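I hope you will forgive my troubling you with a question about protein structure. The record follows directly beneath this note:
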Amino acid sequence: MVGSAVVPPVSTNAADELERLWYDCRNMTGGRRTRWFTLPFSEAFAIIAFYRFNRAAYLTFGRTWVLFRTLTSPLNPLIRIFVPTQIDYRADIGPGFRILHPQLGVVIGGRVRAGKGLILAGGNCIGGGAAVLGNWVQLGANATVMGEVTLGNGVRIGAGAVVVKDFAGPGTLVGVPAEPVGTPTGDATATTLDEADFTI
């Protein structure tokens, strides 16, 4: 079992989620000012912002928001036209979240917890249990994490891989079921933003 040190901090209020959205945007723009002008029109931004606002409302209103979501569920097919993913608002995803190819779709279950800098290539599914992902985890296209799985910091999952057991990381997992390959580089923070950029 991977040590508890990789368990990411829990978001507890709407302010946390809005601050995380700010860091998501910074990571999506890569520090380039010109990208801020096109960011609001990107599909990835729409998906992540939709998730963040949904989670913020859930943390603020609790069961009232759950009831509202239930009553408006007939609108879900229409929403999927504009936001072609299913990221449960109960999932707790840290700052710096990115989806590289959102048109491939993403499914994240409500019992998932992920740390800073989660990057999904697209076509990914994370769920089927209380999955815990550390910081700077990356999933290649169509990679899947299923069940009660804990992944450490700096884990990279190859395209089409299916992860069904714990892995401490850093390192790369490939295959079905996924197994570690190569020699870990020790670089658990390979992403656009530095560790110091995240303060929450």
The chain has five helices and 15 strands. The longest helix spans residues 43-61. The radius of gyration is 16 Å.
